[in-house]
Amino acid sequence: MISERTPSHNRPLFLVAILSLAFWQSAVSQEQKQQNGISSTWLLLQALPSYSWTSFLRQTNFAFEWEAAPVLYSFGMNKQDPPWHFFQVTQPERFAGSIELVVSTQLYTSKVGTSHWGFSGQFLAHLPLVEYGEYIGLNLGVARYAIAGMSSNYIVGGFSTFFGFLHYNIKFSPSAKIWMNTIEFRFF
Fold this sequence. Notes:
Strand content: over 45%
CATH topology: Porin
Shape: globular
Distance between the termini: 64 Å
Radius of gyration: 25 Å
Number of helices: 3
Strand order of the largest sheet: 1-2-4-5-6-7-8-9
CATH class: Mainly Beta
Largest sheet: 8 strands, antiparallel, barrel
Helix content: 10-25%
Number of strands: 9
CATH architecture: Beta Barrel
């Protein structure tokens, strides 16, 4: 008679195999969650500010700036990478060619009017120039800044380098005659 049950001398080996498979599946699942989710390193890097200095008609003010990209459309990646990204973006998805919405908060070191705060929304296009944008890329866009109760539209132009981590942008408001220079660190 053939038994459909596992022989008693193979049960420990069978249990070890099942437990090993369950442990391996759990480890793979945890790794996938870390790759697709927000890591503690990513959160820590978001606390690092970018730097800007704004030249108004009568004064120049230095500011710290924190940015987030809630939406990015990448047109420079291959078809295996989805084109739409929300909040978390890898550098190649940005520097290989993309259009993104950026929202930011500025904290000025001295008062501008009656406040130390500024806020903005920007649409930026990143176009690769050298080595698919890894070495040098062009940044072009438009922005709307609200600083100390005053809102202005800006034209944005600049470049990115160092695999998309370092950006230098110049922003100009033709109506208010305000120039803004920013050195941005893009870790997301």
